């Protein structure tokens, strides 16, 4: 019998960034068992959670010119038009923006929304307020990745949150990457903003759950009409 989707997700491989944390938690658990067995079991549960947090499941990315896929797992927190941060150099006009909020149970490996060349990577220090708030896009510590396919430019912004204190970027300026390719990770719960080209209509709604590398959030080619949504 094939494993259910939830079980497969839980048993996904651990990303290499998580190895030191899992090893540290496991070592602490051994010490706790030596001190007092009940504490050791608490440590064992914590170790399992750390391993679960750093899981890196395989994703099946739809490939087609113009498709923009979600860079992160999580809840679509905001779908709006907003002026992008100045460091992105995308102009002063408001652009379509999709914000994905990741809680501590979501997969935290981030993926490229489109295929293309990494034009810019900009790290900006800042605050650590609740990443679910709109002002987190401008106030919080963040790492921005601008990607161009030669025709269009899409930017993702990895935003630290109330608990998250470390943003990891896997790519460098000048790299050529594919849609759905791993580009970074945020520890431990945060948000990713996607800035789309002007005039592009997002195909997701606030409250929807996205899967990084799989959920189509926009179509730059405008082949699909604006979607309607029903909650129920």
What does this structure look like?
With about 230 residues, this protein is α+β, with helices and mostly antiparallel strands. It folds into 2 domains: about 5-55, no CATH class; about 65-220, Glucose Permease (Domain IIA) (Distorted Sandwich). It has 4 helices and 13 strands. A hairpin with a 4-residue loop joins strand 6 and strand 7. It is elongated and about 60 Å long. The mean pLDDT is about 85.
Helices and strands, with pairings:
Layout: H1 5-10, H2 19-35, H3 37-53, E1 67-69, E2 74-82, E3 95-102, E4 109-111, E5 116-124, H4 136-139, E6 142-148, E7 153-159, E8 166-169, E9 176-177, E10 182-187, E11 190-195, E12 209-210, E13 216-219
Antiparallel strand pairs: 1-13, 2-3, 2-12, 3-11, 4-10, 5-6, 5-9, 6-7, 7-11, 8-10
Helix pairs in contact: 2-3
Secondary-structure element sequence?
HHHEEEEEHEEEEEEEE
| Average pLDDT number | 86
Which band does the percent of strand residues land in? 25-35%
Please give the CATH class of the largest domain.
Mainly Beta
Record field, number of beta strands: 13
* Structural class assignment: alpha+beta
CATH architecture of the largest domain: Distorted Sandwich
Main sheet record: 8 strands, antiparallel
| CATH topology (level 3) name of the largest domain | Glucose Permease (Domain IIA)
Share in helix: 10-25%
- In DSSP terms (H or I, runs of 4 or more residues), the helix count works out at 4
